Amino acid sequence: MLLHKLRWNNLTHRFCRDLSYGKGSTAPLKNAKLPGIQKVEPWDGKDGELVVEEDIDLSDVELDDIDSKDEL
User: Fold this and answer.
1) The pTM of the whole model exceeds 0.90
2) How far apart are the C-alpha atoms of 21 and 34, rounded to whole Å?
3) Residue 39's pLDDT band (cuts 50, 70, 90)
């Protein structure tokens, strides 16, 4: 598995290096289209509302001191 990973990393490195030097090329995808532009409502300039979470009541939880245990 290690040998396969090293080989894959080497091929990936070589591919990216060739692209960065302008030597490599990629094949176009069949039926590839650019995504369409969606219409959305303009931003109102305000941040989103923070969801307030309830505090958890820990009064009924017993947390024993670790040093007081006599177990092995």
Assistant:
1) no
2) 26
3) very high
